[in-house]
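Box 4.2: Ligand-aware structure prediction
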Amino acid sequence: MKVAIILHTQSGRTSELARKIAEVFRNASHEVDIYMLRTVGNVTPRSTKFEIKNSPVLTDEDWVIFAAPVWAFKASPVIMKYFATLKNLKGKKVMNIVTKSLPFDWTGGTQALASMNSETETSNGDTLQGIIVQSYIKISADKQTEVANKALKAFIE
Ligand SMILES: Cc1cc2nc3c(=O)[nH]c(=O)nc-3n(C[C@H](O)[C@H](O)[C@H](O)COP(=O)(O)O)c2cc1C
């Protein structure tokens, strides 16, 4: 399948996870492109005064993964701003993944995932159950592999 991973990262944990996901999907013979959203302007949890420099346009991808950190109990404002540019995801399987550092899903994970799911569902994406990835510091290699395998399994089923 043709797969796109579109992500926002600030400190690199989400992008590191995305690279592992790409590796696992490629090892299963899928074609994967990673798009990292880049911004100009002041990006803070509640800021809207920034622009996304590269808004990837999805075309013939079969599967799409959106990944972003939780900021101030919500999804990153960058991924949410990107969603405003989304066209129709009809016919695509989609999964949203959030990374976070505080324990418990209710410290932003559930809310962030719900708002991302709402966007991809509104765009008619066949939205699979998303994944909340919590880790205090770095996401361990084992955890990254576990998430990647879980995601692959969900897309295949
Ligand atoms: C401004 C800011 C706000 C954050 N707010 C939360 C939060 O509400 N809940 C949480 O669990 N983690 C929070 N975090 C931690 C990040 O979600 C976590 O470190 C994430 O994995 C970082 O991803 P990145 O390295 O891809 O940028 C916050 C981090 C930043 C920088």
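In the box above, the bound molecule is flavin mononucleotide. The pocket of flavin mononucleotide is lined by residues 9-14, 45, 69-73, 99-102, 107-108 (CB under 6 Å).
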